[in-house]
Amino acid sequence: MFHRHSAFVAAAVFAAAGSVANAALTIDLRVAGATDSKSVQVENVGDVVTLNVYAVVKGANSTIDTDGLQSITGSFVSTPVSGSPVGNFSVFSPVAPFNGTVLAGTVQDLNGLPGLDLGGTGTNAAGGRSLQMQIGNGAPVVGDAAASEWLIGTVSWTVTNAEGLDATTLSFIPLAGASSALWREDGANRNGSTGSFVGGSPVSVTAIPEPASLAVVGMAAASLLRRRRTA
């Protein structure tokens, strides 16, 4: 079982590696079942974190029905640090109408760090990561009245090591180049070369501390307090 919380809800969708406010097309990961949550806690090996994958188109005008999405190409990458949870990505599951053509990619290590990522065998000049995953519906789909964003699918990350006090980040890494994405923005067709295509801010995964770990932290804090009082 894992527990969700939404400490970063307000700013997370619009922040980090290429903000929605400054980018034409952003692929944004959010914890499923929690409103736009950008953080989640895991407890046990085998816990599954399900992420909703959104495409967000941000144009210069406020006319929603002039924006649309056709396809994206990229990969899902986990970045653990020493002392953070480890896990494996699994298959990406697109939702209609973005399930017409799917090159699902391969579960493999793409960044030389513990855990398995999800992508293909190509590389981009920006980071050398393997990126070949495409979804598409064959024709642009216009946005709804609320926002130019679409739920395009889900992807799961399964915990293989639930220990540590630091955070692992889960990110979407876009492919570079003209063929990396196709979308419609302010009534004009765009691709990875004529528009900005970025990954949104990552999801942060932390482990719920074991009771013994909490006890050690408490003892350390008490010891520090005693030393300050006797100083």
Write a concise synopsis of the structure shown.
With 231 residues, the chain is mainly beta. It is 10% helix and 43% strand.
What would you say this structure looks like, in words?
It is a single chain. The chain has 231 residues and is mainly beta. It contains 2 helices and 16 strands. The protein has helices spanning 9-12, 211-230, and strands at 3-5, 25-31, 39-42, 48-57, 68-79, 86-94, 101-103, 106-108, 117-119, 134-142, 149-161, 168-174, 181-185, 188-191, 197-199, 203-207. Mean pLDDT is 76; it is low at 1-22, 124-132 and 213-225.
SSE arrangement:
Layout: E1 3-5, H1 9-12, E2 25-31, E3 39-42, E4 48-57, E5 68-79, E6 86-94, E7 101-103, E8 106-108, E9 117-119, E10 134-142, E11 149-161, E12 168-174, E13 181-185, E14 188-191, E15 197-199, E16 203-207, H2 211-230
Parallel strand pairs: 2-15, 3-16
Antiparallel strand pairs: 1-3, 2-4, 4-11, 5-10, 5-12, 5-13, 6-11, 7-10, 8-9, 12-16, 13-14
